[in-house]
Design goal:
The complex is a heterodimer of chains A (256) and B (369). Chain A has 256 residues and is an alpha/beta fold. Chain A contains 9 helices and 10 strands. In chain A, the strands form 3 sheets. Chain A has a 5-stranded parallel β-sheet with strand order 5-4-3-10-9. A 3-stranded parallel β-sheet of chain A has the order 6-7-8. Chain A has a two-stranded antiparallel ribbon with strand order 1-2. The termini of chain A are far apart. In chain B, strand 1, helix 6 and strand 2 form a beta-alpha-beta unit. Classes of the chains: A alpha/beta (256), B alpha/beta (369). Chains A and B meet through helix 3 of A and helix 5 of B.
Chain lengths: 256, 369
């Protein structure tokens, strides 16, 4: 399988993971290790960056994991830039999952503030992975200001409802010059496989692994699904022929 | 339209009748929907829903885990003052209770902070009575800078204020403001709040609108269960929540379920809400609104709190004292109400872990404003 390159990092695993909602930090650690994930996102608000023994960070200190701090909780571009700078200093990485959701109910990302913040953060030297709605034009605009990837949502975060935005995701994948990571809404391994089959470069999964009876087994299941989906994509999945084939082909007259 | 106008168009008696007229069919329909409205909420809190309590609990459990994960947020109240100029029939701080009044000094606050921090807390709820001269904006301006550096998240439960004052508090680091309506029944409200600024029903009911306009991060709503018919009062609270979510969509919301507790003065509840009914109410809120935070205080018993963890609650307090100075200084000050669950924060965290949940101590950061 082809490795995935984002900015200066190469990933063997195309499964990115979140760290929220687990019943314990130990279980989170074991599930994420089992998932093979190499990029894990951490909410700045959940960790105590001044505490060297912080429970979440302690359980993520494995060479397998690169940290992807996120700005969850900020409502404006200004707050996002501020939080990003703090995350960079505290967690010693310039990678950033940019998420600005002024709406605390559905946690939907604000496209205007996200674009503003992305532009500024790129200038400040961040590797920016913005979480956005599945909006093809916005994804191109973000790419133009220099984000390292785009992270469109499959469906509302935490909803486990799969790729409801499929038609838009297809356009985004088709047009993108940066990696496309489908984030949010992936509720089952089959959803993850579907995203990879479509040509998404990676997926980010949290709730589906954290909130199930056996997160370790579920982590493995997602690992396998992501690999299967990618392999199918690389093997050039044959598109089902939806229309009937005419018994006398339209162009056969040309051969006469 | 402000909520005040909306509520003026909604008759208490009509609402009450329509709740009690809900049928099992209405309940089943509410349970089977994917998004519920206020009529569904009525069905879920109605007597007709009582036989469906187990189904409601299962649904509430599932919805809460999906949205909030297997986590429970920990918080603790710090009472800064029990001075109060209001007369409230149900409250230990009521001005007509002739007991010792205390407002903490800077030094006493520091001592409280030390004890609270030693338990692991990072989210704190600051509480005062309503005494404008001693615990008004000047006092908050002085003490918030003392408290803020020690906590990731600060909530307050103080007298209702004006919009510009809330804006200033937000600047001073206040994340959440709790302001319970107590009851939405206007006449009864006036009976229970005969004297003081709190007797102004309209100013109180308009407070969440002022908070929304001030763009506060989160506000907490609730009724004092026992003052009025809990079903009708809770419906108005849900209606308030619904209105606020649509109007101030950048604000987060939480709901609490305080039941009338023994205190100095001893008002008998007008209407009792049983444990079963309280579970029904909590599950109904969750099924109605998948995203609202639901909070549980130490007013409730050990057994009740142990079991409610899985049924929809998202935050819980532990080891609470309801008298100013209660953690570090023995000031023999009057407490607001008797707490029922006296277990330590450590014991509660252990109880939460034993149920397969994580006790979360920090889920905000001062840098986020």
């Amino acid at each position: 399988m082809e490795p995935l390159k984002i900015a200066d990092k190469v990933f063997t695993s195309r499964l990115f993971t979140g760290t929220g909602k687990f019943s314990s930090s130990l279980l989170m650690e074991e599930a994420l290790l089992a998932s093979g994930s190499e990029l894990v996102t951490v909410a700045l608000k959940r960790v105590d960056v001044e505490d060297k023994e912080d429970d979440i960070l302690k359980h993520l200190s494995h060479s397998q994991f690169s940290l992807l701090p996120n700005t969850s909780g900020v409502r404006t571009a200004k707050e996002a830039v501020f939080a990003a700078q703090l995350a960079r200093e505290a967690l010693e990485t310039n990678w950033l999952k940019l998420e600005i959701h002024p709406d605390p109910k559905y946690l939907l990302p604000d496209p205007i503030e996200t674009l503003k913040a992305a532009e500024e953060l790129v200038k400040l030297g961040f590797i920016v992975l913005p979480y956005v709605n599945a909006d093809p034009v916005l994804c191109k605009r973000l790419e133009e200001v220099g984000t390292a990837a785009v992270m469109p949502l499959g469906s509302p975060i935490g909803s486990n409802s799969g790729l409801q935005t499929k038609a838009m995701l297809e356009i985004i994948i088709d047009q993108a010059k940066v990696p496309v990571v489908v984030d949010a809404g992936i509720g089952a391994p089959s959803h993850a496989a579907e995203a990879l089959e479509m040509g998404a470069d990676a997926v980010l999964v949290n709730t589906a692994i954290a909130v199930c009876s056996n997160p370790i087994t579920m982590g493995k299941a997602f690992k396998m699904a992501v690999e299967a989906g990618r392999m199918a994509f690389e093997a050039k999945l044959s598109k089902g022929i939806k229309h009937a084939v005419a018994s006398s082909p339209f162009t056969s007259f040309l051969d006469i | 339209m402000a909520f005040l106008e909306l509520i003026n168009q909604t008759g208490w008696d009509d609402v009450q009748q329509s709740i009690y007229a809900k049928t099992e069919q209405d309940v089943l329909q509410a349970l089977s929907k994917s998004k519920r409205n206020l009529e569904d909420f009525k069905a879920l809190i109605s007597p007709a829903a009582a036989p469906y309590l187990e189904q409601m609990a299962v649904l509430s459990h599932q919805i809460t885990q999906k949205r909030f994960g297997k986590t429970i947020q920990m918080y603790i109240p710090m009472y800064l003052s029990n001075e109060c100029q209001n007369v409230c029939t149900y409250c230990g701080f009521s001005v007509d209770n002739k007991l010792r009044r205390v407002t903490l000094t800077d030094e006493q606050i520091q001592k409280e902070i030390e004890v609270i921090k030693s338990h692991g807390y990072d989210h704190i709820l600051l509480v005062t009575g309503e005494a404008n001269k001693t615990v008004g904006m000047d006092y908050f301006r002085r003490v918030l800078p003392l408290i803020r550096p020690h906590f990731a998240n600060i909530s307050i439960e103080v007298q209702p204020l004006d919009q510009h004052e809330y804006e200033e508090l937000s600047q001073l680091g206040v994340h959440t403001v709790l302001v319970y309506q107590e009851t939405y029944h206007e006449e009864n409200y006036k009976f229970h709040h005969p004297k003081g600024k709190k007797s102004n029903f309209e100013y109180r009911i308009d407070t969440p609108d002022r908070l929304g306009k001030a763009q506060i991060n989160k506000m907490g709503l609730g009724v004092l269960l026992g003052l009025e018919d809990w079903r009708t009062d809770s419906f108005f609270c849900a209606m308030h929540l619904n209105y606020l979510e649509k109007t101030y969509w950048k604000t987060k919301y939480s709901v609490s379920f305080p039941r009338l507790r023994p205190y100095t003065g001893n008002l008998e509840p007008k209407v009792n809400i049983t444990d079963k009914e309280l579970v029904q109410l909590i599950c109904a809120y969750r099924i109605f609104n998948e995203d609202v935070e639901l909070s549980m205080s130490t007013r409730e018993s050990e057994v009740f709190r142990n079991h409610i963890i899985k049924l929809g609650i998202t935050s819980i307090s532990a080891g609470s004292k309801t008298d100013p100075g209660g953690y570090a200084s023995d000031l023999e000050a009057l407490e607001q109400f008797e707490i029922s669950d006296e277990r330590s924060p450590k014991e509660i965290a252990e109880m939460i872990r034993n149920q397969g949940y994580e006790a979360v101590w920090k889920d905000w950061d001062a840098v986020l404003g």
